[in-house]
Amino acid sequence: MTGPVIGIVGGTGWLGRAIASAVLAKGFVTPDRLVVSSRSPAAALPGWPDVACVADNRDLAARSDVIILSVRPEQFPAVEVDASGKLLISVMAGVPAAALAASTNAVRIVRAMPNAAAEIDKSYTPWFASAAVGHADKVLVRQLFETCGTADEVLHETDIDYLTALTGPGPAFPALLAMAMLGHARTRSLPESVAKRAVKAVITEASALLAAENASMEETVRTFLDYRGTTAAGLQAMIDGGFMDAVEAGLDAAEAAALAMSRPR
Prior knowledge:
There is one protein chain. The longest helix is centred in the last third of the chain and has 20 residues, at 243-262. Helix 5 (157-166) packs across helix 10 and helix 8 packs across helix 9. The protein has ten helices and eight strands. With 265 residues, the protein is α/β, with parallel strands linked by helices. Helix 4 links the parallel strand 7 and strand 8. The chain folds into two domains: 6-166, NAD(P)-binding Rossmann-like Domain (Rossmann fold); 172-261, no CATH class.
């Protein structure tokens, strides 16, 4: 099998490792065509001995056709990568395409925002491509991120900043709801194991019904409200208590933080 050599800067970090594992497991790339960088090269990907692990990002860039930047945004200024002539894919929050171009000499730039569910091939990954990214590159990007979940191209870079707030948190927002539910269940003196299983059954199992292609969140809520049973009483109390407003305020705050990260410093 031939194809582009993919290099992942930060490839042994949690997200870089998840992407690397997914593209290897799905056969998107063969081990001999993947390079990862790490400050500890001995920590290469377990189970994939043919994957090259290097300590120098400049070495990785020289070997690669496609470079994925998977480091924390605050670490980016210290990353030395010459991506001239390469396809550069950033999975860093808050680093705009202009800053990526200025630092790496890249012209073909993609900004993407996977989330932690990439570890279980359930990430939702929106991505934005600069004007120089051609059709073949876009096909590659879509197929790459579909190895660890689903992916959508968005047409405006500001959409990535918003979706960083909306989908980037992955399990964090559902975990907050689960934490509130678990705290309430504990006040009823349920066994801890029962309380945790009950909450997880709602958050991770029953909510899977929303994954159906024709599922409607609005219709689901309206159906239970119209039924006027115990669930309707709970839903109405949450709505009246400001649930929608609290979620909107949280997303506004997360978006503002993402936009602040994107502003030139």
